[in-house]
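Build the 3D complex.
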Amino acid sequence: MVEITDLHKSFDSNVVLDGVSLSVAEAENMVVFGRSGTGKSVLLKCMIRLIEPDSGNIIINGKDVLKLSIKELNLLRKDIGFLFQGAALYDSMSVKENLEFPLIRNFDLDQKEIDERVHFVLEAVSLLEAINKMPSELSGGMRKRIGLARSIITKPKLMFYDEPTTGLDPITSKEISVLIIELQKALKMTSIVVTHDLLCAKIIADRAIVLEDGKIVKEGRIDDLTSSDDPLLKNFFSDEIIENNGSMI
Amino acid sequence: MLGGLTNFSIRFVKEVFLPPYEIEQIRKHMIELGMRTLPIVGVTGFIIGLVMAMQLSPVLKRFGAEAFLPGSVGISIVRELGPVICALIFAGRVSSGIGAELGSMRVTEQIDAMEVSGVNPFRYLVVTRIFATTFILPILTVYVIFISLIGAYIAVVLVQNMTWAYYLDRVIFSVEFGDAIPGIAKTFVFGYIVGLVGAYKGYTAENGTEGVGKASTSAVVVSSLLILIFDMVLVKLTLWIWPTVK
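Done.
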């Protein structure tokens, strides 16, 4: 489904991605770990060309992403959902308008079908009562849920999650992670999740990779990575456990 | 920055003619921006007209030319004061607003979200706003000119016994077609500048909330400066291609 080969990206002299190669199979859930500033979000944004990589190859659904015209890229993007770190809801639009936006602009649906899809995704994230609210009236967790609803309303085959639980309390984080995996199964999507949250990763991931200095340094099942004797992984995951359990500090 | 503005402007020209045409968004922005600016430009225009007439009255009296007061005020307002004052107020109110709005959308990844959903954010957010500012400013300018003339009339009444009908007749008699058209026409350029600079600053904002603040502030400064520079150029150009206004 996703095949990345030798991806490079630098900002001036700062090398962010230094020859990243990975593949994600259909219906697989892959988590990308790494410390802040190791290029996780940049990797995700390169895949969808929100950031243009310097070199490398990205194949999604058999299409060479870096060689697509803008028109072809937009067609491909219809099959991809993206949950941004801060949910990125459009401030000037209500929840309903936020959800309708990608459907009205990209799909030839009548209003009845649009309403049905809006109700379906709001029910899926248990926020039907928020349909007429503005984003400013929503809590952090609710914003994430609506962001997730907007991402899946187009029924994408591939989902990208950029820190889906960052900034949320542990209970809401767990709820969001469970919601992600439930939707994942229900809609049979492939997903790539960038996160720091070990609990979120344990709930979601089939497989995980660890990015360090712009390179993939480890890859494997999440349990294998967390129980590894590798000093880097031990250090990383012990920090993560403390970070995700504030009371232990 | 000038290079960036030029490229942004070229991109606008390229995209403005391509479908889908966001007519509803343009209409919405025109109403919103127009309504947002209407009270402040109205008050400013009224005061400018009043003060202008108050200042000119004793000067004209010194030369025994009080009868020319309505005409002098009318020509000043129609040719220069109305368009430029309105554009500067519009820049302060609207350019900063567009800069802050788009800047905030940029740093909170809303523009990225739009792009990912297969919508061209430049066309949806930028083209519609520049189009709206370009066409709403001339309308606001006509309104400001009218309000300024009312302000000036009040000042005239204070020093001369003159009816509204006679005052208006004197103004219309003095202001020629060649005064009004270039005065209004240049506000299309001013409106374009306000939208372009505000959108450019906001769309290219970075560094979080600090970047949004900078985008908003510099949008006002740059657009005001460009309005004055282009005014200078356009006045010279008008006098060159339209000798009747000499």
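Residues 2-12+46-245 of chain B form one domain.
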